[in-house]
UniProtKB/TrEMBL annotation:
<feature type="binding site">
    <location>
        <position position="59"/>
    </location>
    <ligand>
        <name>[4Fe-4S] cluster</name>
    </ligand>
</feature>
<comment type="pathway">
    <text>Cofactor biosynthesis; biotin biosynthesis; biotin from 7,8-diaminononanoate: step 2/2.</text>
</comment>
<keyword id="KW-0093">Biotin biosynthesis</keyword>
<keyword id="KW-0001">2Fe-2S</keyword>
<dbReference type="GO" id="GO:0004076">
    <property type="term" value="F:biotin synthase activity"/>
</dbReference>
<dbReference type="Pfam" id="PF04055">
    <property type="entry name" value="Radical_SAM"/>
</dbReference>
<dbReference type="InterPro" id="IPR006638">
    <property type="entry name" value="Elp3/MiaA/NifB-like_rSAM"/>
</dbReference>
<keyword id="KW-0808">Transferase</keyword>
<feature type="binding site">
    <location>
        <position position="190"/>
    </location>
    <ligand>
        <name>[2Fe-2S] cluster</name>
    </ligand>
</feature>
<protein>
    <recommendedName>
        <fullName>Biotin synthase</fullName>
        <ecNumber>2.8.1.6</ecNumber>
    </recommendedName>
</protein>
<keyword id="KW-0411">Iron-sulfur</keyword>
<feature type="binding site">
    <location>
        <position position="262"/>
    </location>
    <ligand>
        <name>[2Fe-2S] cluster</name>
    </ligand>
</feature>
<feature type="domain" description="Radical SAM core">
    <location>
        <begin position="40"/>
        <end position="267"/>
    </location>
</feature>
<dbReference type="InterPro" id="IPR024177">
    <property type="entry name" value="Biotin_synthase"/>
</dbReference>
<dbReference type="InterPro" id="IPR013785">
    <property type="entry name" value="Aldolase_TIM"/>
</dbReference>
<keyword id="KW-0479">Metal-binding</keyword>
<dbReference type="InterPro" id="IPR058240">
    <property type="entry name" value="rSAM_sf"/>
</dbReference>
Length: 360
């Protein structure tokens, strides 16, 4: 069993790993995990939707697309002051990383000053910063990096072969180019995908191959289970077998041994047993709280109970830039009386929305 970091994985190698007897796969994944991480430590992030709905993209899984009727109300870009207030509240409740997401194809030039102010303001609080804003041009990536952005999230979503079945308004290469721009600007990469979208196992393997064969592995690899939303084209997609999902997590851990593998969207419908298997398979990062942009996530109390049952604790990590490394990281979840670490832009009074930014 090797612990080396590779970037030359072949489909047949990954397929052999993925389909080995389940106990053998779990043992190998757990062994790799223990060689690189505290096996009972889970990195916890929080998420704020800073601009919701009216996205021009046609991602078939997404309730924020303007092409589908899903009941999501569109919101303009949230005011910087409100974002910073929410970040301060998150920090007070124990957050170590604050992630900001906007439903865009790409940021517009008029939005960049506000985004930069958000990054600088959150950074000044001693929090790690992360954004997901769609595609980035090289100069936009450089500007965000200069402002202090630590992480940029841009998922590959699925395999290159299945990609056009899910989205047609941007190419797979567009996504890879954005990841290159992020890396070249000196930021850390958060990139993964979604499973359960009707793809075949070879597509899940293809997604993992694309991620593992990047020149540098993403520092964070979110693996999402499709959250089916009425009104989207994938609303009636058959459920993915949960053991297949666990195999995906385990294989990601083996292929990218030093990356944080995030158990992301879809946890709301997973049993405690499935989540426990995912942690055993090497998942060591979650979003904590009741909202993931516009879809449900387990509430704080259920996460606290599960952590206590499994003997898990929040990670105390040092993976941000120098300014954030001095911040005090998460206290034990059990010590948090009533945290509320997730926020949704749809809850913000539109009277307070940034009137200088046009919804798009």
């Amino acid at each position: 069993m090797t612990n080396s970091v590779r970037h030359d994985w072949q489909v047949d190698e990954i397929e052999a790993l993925f389909n080995q007897p389940f106990n053998d796969l779990m043992f190998q994944a757990q062994t790799v995990h223990r060689q690189n991480f505290d096996p009972n430590s889970v990195q916890i992030s929080t998420l704020l939707s800073i601009k919701t709905g009216a996205c021009p993209e046609d991602c078939k899984y997404c309730p924020q697309s303007a092409r589908y009727t899903t009941g999501i109300e569109k919101e303009r870009l949230m005011q910087v002051e409100i974002v910073l207030k929410r970040a301060a509240e998150a920090k007070e409740n124990g957050a170590s990383r604050f992630c900001m997401g906007a439903a865009w194809k790409h940021p517009h030039k008029r939005d960049m000053p506000y985004l930069i102010d958000m990054v600088k303001g959150v950074k000044a609080m001693g929090l790690e910063t992360c954004m997901t804003l769609g595609m980035l041009a090289p100069e936009q990536a450089q500007s965000l990096s200069a402002a202090g952005l630590d992480y940029y999230n841009h998922n590959l979503d699925t395999s290159e072969e299945y990609y056009e079945q899910i989205i047609t308004t941007r190419t797979y290469q567009d996504r890879l180019d954005t990841l290159d721009h992020v890396r070249e600007a000196g930021m850390k990469v958060c990139s993964g995908g979604i499973v359960g979208m009707g793809e075949q196992q070879l597509d899940r393997i293809g997604l993992l191959k694309s991620l593992a064969n990047l020149a540098h592995h993403p520092e964070s690899v979110p693996i999402n289970m499709l959250v089916k939303v009425a009104g989207t084209p994938l609303a009636d997609t058959p459920d993915l077998d949960e053991i297949e999902f666990v195999r995906t997590i385990a294989t990601a851990r083996i292929l990218m041994p030093k990356s944080y593998v995030r158990l992301s969207a879809g946890r709301e419908t997973m049993s405690e047993q499935t989540q426990a298997l995912c942690f055993m398979a090497g998942a060591n990062s979650i979003f904590y709280g009741c909202k993931l942009l516009t879809t449900d996530n387990p509430d704080e109390d259920s996460d606290k109970r599960l952590f206590k049952k499994l003997g898990l604790h929040p990670a105390r990590i040092r993976e941000a830039s120098d300014e954030a490394q001095s911040a005090q990281l998460l206290d034990e979840i059990a010590e948090q009386a009533s945290p509320s670490l997730f926020y949704d832009a749809t809850t913000v009074d539109t009277k307070h929305a940034d009137t200088t930014s046009v919804a798009h």
